[in-house]
Design goal:
Blueprint lengths: L1 E7 L7 H12 L3 E7 L5 H10 L4 E4 L4 H7 L2 E2 L1 H6 L4 E5 L2 E5 L2 H12 L8 E5 L3 H12 L4 E5 L3 H14 L5 E5 L8 E6 L17 E9 L8 H8 L3 E3 L2 H16 L6 H9 L3
Helix pairs in contact: 1-9, 5-6, 5-9
The structure holds 2'-monophosphoadenosine-5'-diphosphate.
2'-monophosphoadenosine-5'-diphosphate binds next to α6.
InterPro entries: Aminoacid_DH-like_N_sf, NAD(P)-bd_dom_sf, SDH_C, Shikimate_DH, Shikimate_DH-bd_N, Shikimate_DH_fam, Shikm_DH/Glu-tRNA_Rdtase
Function: Involved in the biosynthesis of the chorismate, which leads to the biosynthesis of aromatic amino acids. Catalyzes the reversible NADPH linked reduction of 3-dehydroshikimate (DHSA) to yield shikimate (SA).
Enzyme class: oxidoreductase
């Protein structure tokens, strides 16, 4: 039996153990996956303990993704670009760090929501860890343009610099504050943490092209404040449930070499809401 876990604090709300249990059953993998509550000052020690006990890999969630990045002996290109790690693989005592959040987002948009990113005008709201993690996978889809908007302009400018330095494509990349936004977009991704406080970044109504998809990376049992706002302006909306399941599927693939079918898992969680 191969052992995996998710490290976080808090962790009781995590859906990852159930998601991975469903993947494991579906693909007949002999593994278990536990939630691991880590003391705020005990991340490195908890990882070491889990490795010593024979653990094969782990996911990492709030607030340890930056520590996981620092602790990794090797990093994937997407984890290096994200500056954060959500997936650890333990191999011969070495810690390999990856980040599957951005690819989970892109996969959910392009495959599950059947919305191409290539050639489209993309607006990314926020310039924190979640936005940074989405950057490289989004650019790899070759959008026509990428606008990064944030409350604090300097942070958006930092992300633009990072994107420009890593992006070989001809994608036009710019930064603005909310009130400077004066054009429309086909895809609007909310990577701010505003929804956690039931707030909405004050973006003008004119950003919503017709048609457009508004995607809130946050997931809750009820519609997020951002998606409610976007719907008023005619946008199709999607929340972060699909991203959550796709980032897990990518981690599962890294560890087990098999891609689980995410649809029944998505349908199960959606059916439990409300
Ligand atoms: P995360 O890891 O979730 O990205 P973070 O790195 O703290 O968290 O980043 C939070 C992001 O949400 C930032 O872009 C932040 O804007 P600032 O850079 O100006 O701080 C944004 N944010 C948080 N609360 C917000 C709010 N109420 N309205 C708009 N933006 C908000």
């Amino acid at each position: 039996l191969a052992h995996y876990c998710v490290f976080g604090n808090p962790i009781h709300h995590s859906k990852s153990p159930l998601i991975h249990a469903m993947f494991a059953k579906q693909t007949a993998q002999s593994m278990d996956y536990q939630a691991n509550l880590v003391p705020l000052d005990g991340f490195a020690a908890s990882v070491q303990q889990f490795m010593n006990a024979g653990g094969k890999g782990a996911n990492v969630t709030v607030p340890f993704k930056l520590e996981a990045y620092a602790l990794s002996d090797q990093l994937s290109a997407r984890a290096a670009m994200a500056g954060a790690v959500n997936t650890l693989t333990f191999s011969d005592g070495a810690i390999v760090g990856d980040n599957t959040d951005g690819i989970g987002l892109v996969c959910d948009i392009t495959k599950n929501a059947a919305t191409p990113i290539r050639g489209r005008r993309v607006l990314l709201l926020g310039a924190g860890g979640a936005a940074r993690g989405a950057l490289l996978p989004l650019l790899e889809e070759q959008p026509a343009s990428l606008m990064i908007a944030n409350r604090t302009l300097s942070k958006a400018l930092d992300l633009v610099q990072l994107a420009v330095s890593s992006d070989g494509s001809k994608c036009q990349i710019e930064a603005k504050t909310w009130e400077q936004l004066d054009s429309s977009f086909d895809l609007i991704i909310n990577a701010t943490s505003a929804s956690l406080q039931s707030e909405v970044p004050p973006i003008p109504a004119s950003v919503f092209a017709s048609p457009c998809l508004a995607y809130d990376m946050m997931y809750a049992d009820t519609q997020t404040s951002f998606n409610r706002y976007a719907q008023q302006y005619g946008a199709a909306t999607r929340d972060g449930l699909g991203m959550l399941i796709e980032q897990a599927a990518e981690a599962f693939f890294i560890w087990r070499g098999i891609r689980p079918d995410t649809k029944p898992v998505f349908d199960y969680f959606r059916s439990k809401e409300g």
